[in-house]
Amino acid sequence: MKNKIKKIALSPWTALATLALVLVVRVADPAFVESVRLKYFDTLITSKAPTQNNIYTVNIDEAALDKYGQWPLPRDEYAKIIQNLYQRNAGLVVLNVLMAEPDRTGGDAVLANALKQYPVILPSVPSEKTKNPPKVPGSAIIGSEHLGQVIQYPGLIANIRPLEASAIGVGIVSTLPEVDGVNRRLPLVIAVEDKLYPSLSMETLRVAAADSTVQIKVNESGVEKMRIPKFGPITTDSLSRIWIDWSLVPDHYSLTDLPKDFEGEIVIVGVSAQGLANPVATAKGEMLPQDLQASVLGTVIANKDRPVISRPDWATGSELLFIIALSVLSLVFITRFTHGYALAIVLGLATYWTSRELFSRYAYLIDIVYPLLTLLIVSLHGYVVKFLTELRQKLQIKKQFGTYLSPALVEKLQRHPELLKLGGETKRLTFMFSDIRGFTPIS
Question: What is the model's pTM?
Fold first, then answer.
């Protein structure tokens, strides 16, 4: 019984117990495992070469504060800025500045009048409590009884009534960091007090498409479908989130140094002055809110003509099956071949190539970090046990035959212990007998 237990303990197949433990950890998916997986996805998405997304961001920077002399800017100055942007052929202006209190300089009426003349998108912010009546969202919902499956906020901070009512559209500015505090996916709609509100980028796209509604279908699992009729369907996950394509970058300008022609494109105005800006943590490091909104908007627009960056529903199950298959195949080779670990290296390289290829061709985010780590741990376990077993066997052969056979033959048996099981080998031998002359007198 003792020998049987020892034999089982020294079998490379005990690595299956390690495999089971690693699978349990993956199914539980603790924060550190998810964080590592997300970091790998960052390397995939940020590896794409940067391209311009035909969106402009205009920054209220230190030079702008020197020019206007204070912060926040007087509301009548915002009216002049909006007029100036449209004179420079802006297609649509997004003023990413929340104005939840009346202007201390009394410029609200001037700005409200400008908002009636020029189409401008304003932001609103989710909060614990509603402040100011929000603009009624232009959304058509199928399955409103399932709104509880959408990201919820108890309240909303809107702009003061004259500005909120005069703006052509108002969108939610909201982030949704991952477990490591980094923003990679942003929701396109959120629910507040049983109403569905579009994000700033979604509202901008709706107005740019000259549409009256955002149409959303919600089921018991969350958001099923979403579209802007004149733009087309928009693919998201069940929480209405999209993976941001960081390769799509806007053109940046200072408010004091604007181009002559915005070429009819979307212009997002935001604060970048140090001490006033509120950078957001992203996969590319800290990013200004207006740049983040430009990336989100650019991603939604680009997704119409190319594969959507996504984490498929079948990804987790496929990864678990892949882990099992890789590990078992590696153990088979380790137990049967002297250099079976070489297969583990080949499988690891093939796994990495497959993941990159799936992202390159279909924009699928498939994790390889955990499968490769599992393959390494299981293969190492199996190989170490095999090494210890073979070492024990060699020492036993040396102990049993070292005093009876030549060192060369003992070494051969250690290299090929199967010869003991087969009863040795048959060879044709030649023997020579010799005597020593005068041996008897000498002895």
Answer: 0.82
